[in-house]
Structure formats: C-alpha cells, structure tokens
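Problem statement: downstream parser choked on a complex file, so we are re-checking the raw output for the magnesium ion run. The parser issue turned out to be on our end (a line-ending mismatch), but while we're here, posting the original submission so the record is complete.
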Amino acid sequence: MKSTAYSIILASALLFSCQTTKNTIISVPTNHDKLLMSVAWYQHSAEMAALYYQGFNIAQQRLNEAINANKHTKPLAVVVDIDETMLDNSPFEAMLITNADDLKGWYNWTAKATAKALPGSLAFAKYAQSNDVEIFFVTNRDDSERAVTLKNLAEAGFPYATEDHLLTKSDLSYSTGNTSSKVGRRAKVSENHEIVLLIGDNLNDFSGEFEDRSVNNGKEAVLKNHEQFGQKFIVLPNPMYGAWEKPLYNYRDGLGDEEKTKLLKSKLRNE
Ligand SMILES: [Mg+2]
C-alpha cells in the first residue's frame, strides 16, 4: 500500500514537473532561430562583402557622372540610410539568436556605439566629402538615439556625423504623419540640395512608391521603377529583416518565431 501510495505521489510529482517544464518552455521569450542562416550569410559570406563593394562602386560612378554633368543649381547631396547600409548591426541580430533577446535590446546595442562600417561605405562617404558632396543620414532610429548614433558614425570614421546631417525617425516636423516614412525627410534635404543618389537596404529608403507592399509584395513598384536601380537608387542586401517581411506576416505585429516560421513556410513557392 505504502509503495503504491508512494508511486502515485511520484507519478503525480513527475506529471506536475512535466507540466511545469512545458509551461516554462512556453513562457520562454520567443527565439529567433529563423535568423540563423541570414545572419551567418551576412557576417561570413564573401558574397555579402562583394555586394556591398559592388553597390558602393556603382554609387561612386554615378556620383562622378553627376559631378561631371555639372547641371545642378543646388549643392549635390547623397541620402544614405544608416542601419545595414553604412553601419553593421548584425552583432545585435546574432544576440537575438544566442540570447533569445528581444527587440528592447536594440537600444542597449546602439548605446554601445560600436557598430562597424560596412564594406565600401566609409571609402564612398570620404570620396563624396572630398568632392564637396554632402551626405545626409536619413534613418529610422529614434530621436533618443541621436547622440549615440552620431558618436558611432564619428568613431567609425564617417564624415558629416553632425546634427544637421542626421534625420531621425521621430522628426515629425517634415514627415507625412507616418513616422517611419522617409518621404518628408528626403523633401527636407531637397529644399537646399539636389539629391543625386540614394543608398539603402530597404526600398522605403528610396521612394514613397515602395511603401505599399500590398501588390505582389511591392514587386510591381520595383518593375515600374526598374531603370532607377543602379542609377539613382543603390540597393544593398539585407536578408535579416526589413519591410519585405511585413506582407509575409500578413502585416501582423508581435508574432512569435513559431507563428512567423509557419507563415513563411505557407508562402513558399514550389514552382
Ligand atoms: Mg537600413
């Protein structure tokens, strides 16, 4: 009897511990394993470096053409995005995977101001400066990140790491009301400069036309503007995150990794 009672208690304890373990697993913050391949590619593939050099080499050629054309009435400027365009934040993406950190960790990362310059970005920015072409950093980092962003850019060696060349996300004064849209901030730069080139890893870095991804994930807008790529628009690769994800997740925010993976799988093409 004693041993039966003990067995029941033991079995109950085991069952309880299994449930506890199960509950514990469920309550663990979302993991980011789906990022593994893209972060590995971004950090370690030589192709990634080659694509950045390719982008900035083309940018330099286009800049030379604009300077030589000498048609401008206003000073020339290049508008660049910061994250995954000029600065490499892939260590933060790696932290998401290894620490199952959440996006709040982003501010801890940018506060370090240690993101490195991406291949070709620094040489391009210095080349622009040596030709009196100003660089404007139009970023969706927040106003609260301005100081650390300027510190990071300056310490990485970028010219124009100054208040008047940095346009952050919450600068609503010139925006369209959508704080993520860069349309208003580009218009602000255009008031006193002629933007000859735009460089970014997200189509929203180039034109408002790309902000709506509801038609074929935005590919219709790309087709319509295809002649601009490698001309005025220089696109850099970022497989880790971006506005391209939103239609794949049906524009739903706050999904866990499991749900995201399920949605991604449901949208794969087999032919
Ligand atoms: Mg970016």
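For whoever reads this later: Confidence is low (pLDDT under 50) at residues 1-28.
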